[in-house]
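User: Reviewer 2 asked us to show a designed sequence for the structure in our supplementary figure. I'm pasting the structure tokens here. Could you produce the per-position amino acids so we can include them in the response letter?
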């Protein structure tokens, strides 16, 4: 039986391994993260890297990994411009705007709206882009939605109607020292609007209770959604047949 593996690397970083073994790295915040259980040296080389926006807790080590690994990188304009200016070729670094669908080795990645900001302040002048969320379609059509950083917004209902995501990686708190884009109770409503069968909370301070508050709110707001709280280093094995 084919299966997909999803490993949590802390904050909003995940490593997805598809049914055929293709590795997709999402929001590679590794070397500066106090949550990530591995070092850059221990990271398995991704076949594809996707980045939701230019914040350091999401873009993270994208440039260093792109220099080391000969993989495509798909992201918003701010991240892609930064990569291009630092020697990553245009053949590998590709922009993702709302509605774009890119394909690679039997999988597809769709960019959808995220209500947030994408700003890279470590360069002069700062780079600005449009943050995205990603819906990833695996070879056997398991549909995983990484929301990125987003506030709750009504068009999540449209995303559900059009694209029918099954598993959501849902931001439910704040990066350390920042304000939360979406609270646990709002995240639970998002699960209902999106019609998710499984939700994985992400983007919270490790010692916080947000993921457990989220699970309680989901019980009330979206009882058909199963919540899986993952600790950094945890890996899920997902069978596409279980989500049809």
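Assistant: Here is a per-position design you can include in the supplement:
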């Amino acid at each position: 039986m084919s299966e997909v593996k999803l490993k949590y690397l802390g904050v909003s970083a995940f490593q997805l391994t598809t049914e055929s073994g293709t590795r997709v790295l999402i929001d590679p915040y590794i070397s500066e993260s106090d949550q990530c259980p591995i070092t850059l040296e221990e990271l398995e080389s991704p076949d594809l890297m996707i980045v939701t926006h230019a914040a350091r807790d999401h873009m993270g080590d994208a440039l260093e990994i792109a220099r080391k690994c000969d993989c495509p990188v798909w992201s918003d304009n701010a991240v892609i411009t930064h990569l291009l200016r630092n020697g990553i070729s245009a053949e590998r670094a590709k922009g993702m705007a709302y509605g774009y669908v890119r394909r690679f080795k039997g999988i597809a990645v769709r960019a959808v709206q995220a209500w947030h900001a994408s700003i890279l302040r470590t360069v002069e002048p700062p780079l600005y882009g449009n943050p995205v969320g990603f819906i990833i379609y695996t070879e056997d059509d398991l549909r995983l939605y990484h929301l990125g950083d987003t506030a709750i917004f009504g068009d999540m209902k449209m995303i559900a109607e059009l694209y029918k995501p099954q598993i959501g990686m849902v931001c439910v708190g704040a990066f350390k020292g920042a304000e939360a884009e979406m609270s646990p109770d709002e995240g639970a409503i998002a699960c209902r609007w999106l019609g998710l069968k499984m939700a994985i909370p992400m983007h919270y301070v490790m010692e916080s209770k947000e993921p457990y508050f989220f699970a309680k709110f989901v019980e009330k707001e979206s009882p058909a959604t199963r919540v899986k709280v993952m600790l950094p280093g945890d890996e899920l094995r997902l069978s596409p047949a279980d989500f049809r």
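For the response letter, you might also mention the following. The chain has one domain: 4-232. The CA atoms of residues 119 and 128 lie 5 Å apart.
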